[in-house]
Amino acid sequence: QVRLVESGGGLVQAGASLRLSCVASSGTLSSYAMGWFRQAPGKEREFVAGISWRGARTTYADSVKGRFTIARDNAKNAVILQMNSLEPEDTAVYYCAACSRAPTNAYVSSFRGEYDYWGQGTQVTVSS
User: Fold this and answer.
1) Which residues lie closer than 8 Å to 91 by C-beta, 6 or more apart?
2) Which residues, at least 6 apart from 119, have a Cβ–Cβ distance to it below 8 Å?
3) For 89-109, how does the pLDDT look when each residue is reduced to its tens digit (9 = 90+)?
4) Which among 26, 29, 54, 61 counts the fewest CB atoms within 10 Å?
């Protein structure tokens, strides 16, 4: 089992950048495929970005491609989401999640139901 803790959220203006971090307070992330999701008020939780457990493969939602980058730092037991050129539509609570059922080391999932462990979330607010 792994316990996830997100940090790095905040209030920024449109066009700014933020760097979200997800660390494991217990367990190790190196054997999990990882993902970031977000949930805006009144909306479903949606996939943002994912990375395979060796970091060889990444995938992104169309709405964030070219602006967000997911990376892992296994030495620090962490997964990072670098968010650039933020837009008001990016305002949401951002959640880190771990998938223990990856069948291969290149597997990345965008499906919420395939993630077993979730953090408590960090708020990102982008003003126009």
Assistant:
1) 40, 124, 125, 126
2) 4, 5, 6, 22, 95, 96, 97
3) 999 999 999 999 888 888 899
4) 26
